[in-house]
Design goal:
Length: 204
């Protein structure tokens, strides 16, 4: 269906649901909705998920989405897996915590491993990043997220991040707001192009 709306899900890894990260993220989501996308916002702090149990290190066969999220091990990650699979694009938003993503966000990325291991199930989705901090480490945090997500099959538009450092009120950081709007627009553009192509990037 060519007129189906593009679907984006955003995961906020800040424990502060009304903090700076959420503020900057809201600008990206507003831009996406303005362009006609359907958006969904998840605050990871609302439903903490257990840590990855490292099944992959026992044997790759043990690292599998159903095993990771069903039965005794069921938690909110089951729904997050569905949202990820259903989406055309994902925004990963986090404050800088000691020069990297928050623990909430890192844990979430680890729990995406089974989707990657079971056949690159997130292949071809687009991703972007929103990062806020007080003084240092925003770009380092973006890079720490981009690497694993690239290996999971995500694609990034040009300028795939909006970062803000040192602003108590992120809405006063005009450059960050511009990056956030640009990010929304470019995520929408790239997801639209890729949807029409329906590539399998991993398959040979
Ligand atoms: C545990 C912790 C570690 C932090 N480490 C850093 C850091 O390494 N670099 C930095 O610039 N800010 C650091 N900060 C500050 C936050 O990144 C900053 O206040 C951020 O904008 C808060 O986002 P929020 O309002 O969405 O929670 C840290 C904050 C906390 C709580």
């Amino acid at each position: 269906m060519s007129d189906e709306k593009l679907k984006f899900v955003a995961f906020n890894g800040s424990p502060r649901k009304e903090g700076r990260t959420a503020g900057l993220l809201s600008v990206v989501l507003e831009e996406l909705r303005g362009l006609g996308a359907e958006t969904r916002l998840i605050h990871l702090v609302d439903n903490p998920i257990r840590p990855c149990l490292g099944c992959f290190s026992n044997s790759p066969e043990e690292c599998e989405p159903r095993r990771c999220t069903e039965g005794e091990l069921e938690d909110a990650m089951k729904g997050y897996h569905q949202l990820l699979l259903y989406s055309d694009g994902v925004i990963f938003a986090t404050p800088v915590m000691w020069f990297g993503p928050s623990g909430l966000m890192k844990n979430f990325i680890d729990r995406m491993t089974s989707l990657e291991n079971a056949g690159k199930l997130l292949d071809g989705r687009v991703a972007g990043f929103v990062v806020t901090g007080d003084e240092d480490g925003a770009m380092q945090t973006v890079m720490q997220l981009m690497g694993p997500l690239s290996e999971m099959g995500f694609l990034f538009p040009p300028y795939p991040f909006a970062t803000s450092l040192g602003f108590k009120n992120v809405m006063e950081d005009r450059e960050a707001l511009e990056f956030a709007r640009r990010l929304g627009r470019n995520l929408y553009r790239l997801a639209g192009i890729l949807k029409k192509k329906d590539f399998n990037w991993w398959g040979m």
